[in-house]
Amino acid sequence: MNILEEMKQRTDVVSIPEHYKQMTMEEMKKRVIEIKAKLGKQLYLPCHHYQKDEVVQFADDIGDSLKLAQLSAQNKEAKFIVFCGVHFMAETADMLTEDRQVVLLPDMRAGCSMADMADMHQTDRCWSVLQNTFGDTILPLTYVNSTAAIKAFVGRNGGATVTSSNAKRMLEWAFTQKERVLFLPDQHLGRNTAYNLDIPLDKMAVWDPINHCFEYDGNLEEAKIILWKGHCSVHQNFTAENVEEIRKTKPDMNIIVHPECPFETVELSDYAGATSFIINTIENAPSGSKWAIGTEMNLVQRIIDQHPDKEICSLNPHMCPCMTMNRIDLPHLLWSLESIERGETVNQVTVSNAITTDAVLALNRMLERA
Fold first, then answer.
1. Of 48, 54, 56, 59, whose CB is crowded by the most CB atoms within 10 A?
2. Is the domain of 119 the same as that of 71?
3. What is the pLDDT at residue 13?
């Protein structure tokens, strides 16, 4: 069940009151500043890189999903953590923080299409087939961009979570445990990482969770990695054709992309790496250098604004920001903060103890190798 389906079945999820939509930006900014000052260290406000500037301006920390969850866990003073990201990120923060701390997501509609591409019903069916096909020779890994339930499944079965920055290291570790790996839920990150470890494409099979079958022309016994057929709806749209267009029109421009992009896009680009790698590479590039960036548009625009001495554009000029990330806006942030002020805490994200126990196993196996 994805977050939108879950919302339809819940009676405790409420819509933002209408009056917030009538407030001016200045009125909302003033109230956010007032409440942050009033709550002080009781409040912690982490923001993902892909958030809108109208929200990022109030962030206590900005980072990727795992960094923000770790920072939330390290912050023992805050009673309220208002996580400006998407649902799986708030789940991870809830699992890594103490029971007395409250994690809120300003808009419960802020889900993740990639995380929703792997649910437990599909995963259990897949795992049964894999066990029958390969026996006890396969270990599951999941990208942190997955639900708490998927993280718990991986933890129960000896696996670990990965991030885009440590996927190579974690995949190397996985192959010291078993001879095969199931990689959830992003096939592109899995394929790009495995290829960097010299695993040929013809040793990678794809599992289609919708049609419940393998997509693979070879002998399954020779497959080293099973890629879940999922993807990021943003990064999927940076294509080889986009790269070729830049090469044709701006041949002196560097191309840097996120490893959630398709294999062909990554192979044709000059650089590929996680969000922090992209940010740091541009930061350290010489003045006057030229860059086409293949990642989320809010972040690309922020990088452009921060580096006026460089020529920077999106690799795909027709890209939109991540639509689910963009559900977190200033009205929803203010609503969340005023609910705390009133003692109401709307849109709290909680993960059961049973799921947390197994999911933290998967997270800790990764963190031990950080």
1. 48
2. no
3. 59
| Domain residue limits at 255 | 235-314
Bridge-based pairing of strands 204-208 and 213-215 is antiparallel
Token match 């192959």: residue?
Answer: 175
Phi and psi angles of residue 182, each rounded to the nearest 5 degrees, phi first: -95, 125
pLDDT of residue 9: 43
Q: How far apart are CA 255 and CA 363, in angstroms?
A: 32
Q: Which positions of the chain have pLDDT values less than 50?
A: 1-12
Within a domain: 62: yes
Residues ≥6 apart with Cβ < 8 Å to 309: 287, 288
- Residue 293, SS3 per DSSP: strand
Which DSSP symbol is given to 157? Answer: T
| Residue 14: predicted pLDDT | 72
Say how far apart CA 105 and CA 109 lie, in whole Å: 9
Q: At what angle do helices 120-134 and 148-156 cross, to 10 degrees?
A: 20
